[in-house]
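hiii so um. not sure if this is the right channel but i have a protein structure encoded as tokens and i wanna go backwards to a sequence. like what aa goes where. can anyone help
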């Protein structure tokens, strides 16, 4: 079955960087669209970045220029490089996969990112 496992979260100071990873298994990695989402306490989940099966990337406006989504098909792994982190980036980050960006049916358990000022 499809399995997504995130890693790389942690606590950093404002301005710092983290790279999140999402190891995927159970499907043909390059054929699916994938995305990174986050949810802060008391807030709704929001999309942060996505990459479709053609390699096109999409970003939430507030992370453009700071976050970069990428994937390594040989390693079946999705990444999110996060630079210039801000306290408002603090959230649980999860990756998701699916046949289309509007049908991301598979989710990982999440990894916590905490940015202190």
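sure thing!! here u go:
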């Amino acid at each position: 079955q499809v399995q997504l496992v995130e890693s790389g979260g942690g606590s950093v100071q404002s301005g710092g960087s983290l790279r999140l990873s999402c190891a995927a298994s159970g499907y043909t990695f390059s054929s699916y669209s994938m995305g990174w989402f986050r949810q802060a306490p008391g807030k709704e989940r929001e999309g942060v970045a996505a990459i479709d099966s053609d390699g096109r990337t999409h970003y939430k406006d507030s992370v453009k220029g700071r976050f970069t989504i990428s994937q390594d098909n040989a390693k079946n792994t999705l990444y999110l490089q996060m630079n210039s982190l801000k306290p408002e980036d603090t959230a649980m980050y999860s990756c998701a996969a699916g046949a289309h960006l509007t049908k991301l049916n598979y989710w990982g358990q999440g990894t916590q990112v905490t940015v202190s000022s």
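oh and The first strand starts at residue 3 and ends at 7.
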